[in-house]
Write a structure and sequence with these properties.
The chain is mainly α and 243 residues long. It contains eight helices and two strands, in the order αααββααααα. A two-stranded antiparallel sheet has the order 1-2. A hairpin with a 2-residue loop joins β1 and β2. α4 runs antiparallel to α5. It starts with a helix and ends with a helix. Keywords: Membrane, Transmembrane, Transmembrane helix.
Length: 243
């Protein structure tokens, strides 16, 4: 390819970018923020909720920049932006963005399942992240759209946390968990805590000391999952009766 032809291609590219300055700026900004958010998430410097919020805000900013000339009102993530008269393109952009909210929060739920392991590996730290995601979804009024996925993930988290219990050994007695139901396991774990406290937690080995705090977190995890399951079941029954 001759130097003259290369210059011609570059000139056409520059002309094309100049004609779509806003869209180009929006795309570049969105890509930069997305890459930054992923890097921070992978390095553990950004939580899942903050990651999704950052992506949502960058997506919102990108649409505003790209369609600045055509907005009248845009609502997403509970906030409103009033601009100029709507054009057909802006309307389509807003509709697509509104529909994309469900996809964004669905992805946030999926990301909560990627983190695992606690202080000694028994406490599943994904569960607190899961409930943070649920709180955000409820605030955005999207729980009904995502309820089936939420129920499925809650069940998976409960099963995994219970499987972790089968690996635990009471440092005071050398015995494992014998309870079958969640309620039995919670009561048994509370009994372990009392035994460890009566025997002086400070005298435990490092592993036993870490296990003590893992048990505290596990009990909270199990209780929250049970309460959540019962509340969603009651809500489902009310809807069935109302129908």
């Amino acid at each position: 390819m001759s130097q003259k032809t290369e210059k011609s291609h570059w000139a056409r590219l520059i002309q094309l970018l100049s004609q779509h300055k806003r869209k180009t700026a929006a795309l570049v900004a969105l890509l930069l923020v997305t890459v930054l958010a992923i890097v921070l998430l992978v390095n553990g410097q950004l939580e899942v909720g903050a990651f999704v919020s950052l992506l949502g805000l960058s997506l919102l900013a990108g649409v505003v920049i790209a369609l600045w000339g055509g907005f009248s009102e845009l609502k997403i993530f509970g906030d409103g932006i009033r601009l100029k008269e709507l054009t057909g393109g802006a309307e389509r952009g807003i509709k697509s963005l509104e529909e994309g909210r469900v996809t964004v929060y669905r992805q946030m739920l999926t990301l909560t399942m990627c983190q695992h392991g606690g202080v000694s590996g028994y406490y599943d730290k994904r569960i607190p992240e899961f409930f943070l995601a649920i709180d955000e979804i409820k605030q955005q009024g999207l729980f009904a759209e995502l309820s089936s996925q939420v129920d499925e993930l809650a069940g998976r988290l409960l099963n995994q946390q219970q499987r972790n219990l089968t690996l635990m050994i009471n440092p005071m007695t050398g015995e494992g968990i014998s309870g079958v139901s969640v309620e039995q396991q919670i009561d048994e774990l509370k009994g372990w805590l009392h035994q460890m406290e009566d025997g002086n937690v400070g005298s435990l080995s490092r592993e036993g000391y870490l296990l003590y705090f893992d048990i505290l977190g596990i009990i909270e995890n199990l209780e929250r999952l049970v309460d959540f399951s019962e509340s969603t079941h009651r809500a489902s029954e009310r809807l069935t009766i109302g129908a």
